[in-house]
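Fold these two proteins, one after the other.
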Amino acid sequence: MTDGVGSAPAIRVRNLTKVYGAKAAVNGLSFEVPRGCFFGFLGPNGAGKTTTIRMLMGLAAPTSGSIELLGLPVPSASVEIKGRIGLVPDESLLFDHLSGAEFIEFVGRMYGLDRGVARERARELLALFELDSQPRKLINEYSKGMRKRAAMAAALIHRPQLFLMDEPFEGVDAVGARLMKEILLGQVQQGATIFLTSHVLEVVERLCTRIAIISDGRLVADSDMAELREGSETLEDVFVRLVGVERQAETLGWL
């Protein structure tokens, strides 16, 4: 595909601002995410990460600025966009009174899959994410890690081109996280784009090829992982240096 939509970045954000009362949670943010990229979006608590990804997901309206996903403008092309992206929000909002298979099948049907196709893919995804040992178990009985796996399985069912993921590994044990990482890396190898927020910098360092860092709602870094580092720096070193929170640890006399 060589038209403007097909050649556009997976995500293009221009001068994005979100104001709550007198405070700008996101302040003039601009960045692009190339297609086929595993992109990490980082920042300290309160920096504006969740507000930004909520605007990308269509869960919050910007005060000003523009967003394009897969070359299509948000919100005017939201219906078409939603059919081409997979979402894993931080809250993992699932239907608690459905089984995992029922929920994943339901999501597939919402994306327009034939009932038989949705049911078969749901069964396969449940097995892939190792949630099939108790197929009738309701989601309200799932642990947090199991809920995250179910949410990611549902995000995959329609084979999206772009994934938006807010803390997808939170509460997931080491075995489950390893499985999820391998599945996501496989999606990138097949040409999908992943936009990931996470507080676990070791995960981001291992998975992501490009990083953006925000602080106080503003972009402070946006480059390939290798370009961010100075010498032998880890991603944690880079993060602390750029967001300006490095200080000598205080010592308590009684501790």
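Now the second one:
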Amino acid sequence: MKKGFTMIELIFVIVILGILAAVAIPRLAATRDDATISRGASDIATLVSDLGAYYTAKGSFDFTAGGPAKMTNVAVDSTDLTDGTKFYYEVPTGTDCVGITISDTNGTVIISDDSGTGSNACEGIITVITNNGLIKTHTFGGTGITR
């Protein structure tokens, strides 16, 4: 008599593995979305902090080409900036998610909801940063502050 698995036993094992995969794959996708949301919210908080520190140290923002890259390590979508120009934080899919407007007038950084795409990651990021009070005008200077 030969030892081994019968065809029925192998079919049961394959069915069980299929059921486990059907349960695990959506959970993996949800975990990836949660990680993207967490990273995005953290990036926005870091961006506000970096821009505030830059303005406080230099007395003005850098509006030259690549200015945001000189003011923060957070990757943003920007080309040529002028005072009051909006640039964007993008989710990994390349969707503009959060708008950032910087202005030397009182050293303001305005964080705004620019998702409008229905992206789950963008909606999650906007919800988290709204709940944490980041969607607003942040002021790092003004007439009462002297150097």
